[in-house]
């Protein structure tokens, strides 16, 4: 048993070395660079410009928007609220510099249903955005590439 200890130690050292090698398949963090809105016949569009596509994205109606990570309520104008969540995303780069330098909250008087947009979270690889709406309506979300964008359409 003692004669195998150097071999076992060498194998464990080799395994430890490979445990810290980054995977070639690791997805880059999607850095948020801009939030744009546009009015269209029948729907309002919110576009999130990103450096890559987020690992996952989700959109849902919520009774109350909350700031991530504090959990504090967020007050936006509107009668219905939508939360957009992007994982594998950030509004800052690896050095902590902001990549999204726009307003944290802005109103959208040019839109028929969306009244306001707010960046309510940028924590541990999750970006959260809240939308204040005049009323509930169908919401559609999809991604586009060239350049990378997450698009949320809210029906009138």
UniProtKB/TrEMBL annotation:
Residues 1-26 form the signal peptide. The keyword Signal applies. Residues 31-156 form the AMIN-like domain. The keyword Signal applies. Keywords: Signal. It holds the Pfam family AMIN-like. This is AMIN-like domain-containing protein. It comes from Kutzneria buriramensis.
